[in-house]
Amino acid sequence: MKRFSIMWMGAAIALLVSACGGQQAEPAPEQPLAEQPAETAPSGEGGEVDEAAALALYKQKCASCHGQELEGAMGPSLTDVGARHSKEEILEILKNGKGVMPGNLVSGDDADTLAAWLAAKQ
Q1: Number of Cβ within a 10 Å radius of residue 34
Q2: Please, which residues have CB within 8 angstroms of residue 22's CB and are 6 or more apart in sequence?
Q3: How far is the C-alpha of 71 from the C-alpha of 78, rounded, in Å?
Q4: Rounded mean pLDDT for each run of 10 residues along the chain, 122 residues in total
Q5: Closest Cα partner for 57 from 38, 81, 34?
Q6: What SS3 string covers 19-46?
Q7: N or C end of the chain: which has fewer CB within 10 A?
Q8: How many CA atoms lie within 13 A of 101 on its CB side?
Q9: Positive or negative, the Cα torsion across 103, 109, 79, 16?
Q10: What is the DSSP letter of 77?
Q11: CA 29, CA 101: separation in Å to the nearest integer?
């Protein structure tokens, strides 16, 4: 009986890790979030954000846990994350993770692009 419980626990952990583990998801049908009119937008800190690149990163790395429209799913809603966290704080979360979210799902310029885009979500 103990072996059966351990097997189920291992399967549950593997499922949780793979759900937010940065695997490549199938492309989702176009959602209103993807219908951004501008290709660049202010980052909130004097720079510009490549909206298309940020959206592609979000859909590939974040949407499986945070929802296609930032509405939250297994992870929290990010619709107003910029009102709660600065770009630097978002970069720190992307680097180190938070709660069950693993760190380093995106890094380098990709992390900077994604953090600036999310920081503009007020």
Answers
A1: 16
A2: 61, 102, 105
A3: 6
A4: 59 55 47 47 61 96 95 94 97 95 94 97 94
A5: 34
A6: HCCCCCCCCCCCCHHHCCCCCEEECCCC
A7: N
A8: 23
A9: negative
A10: P
A11: 25
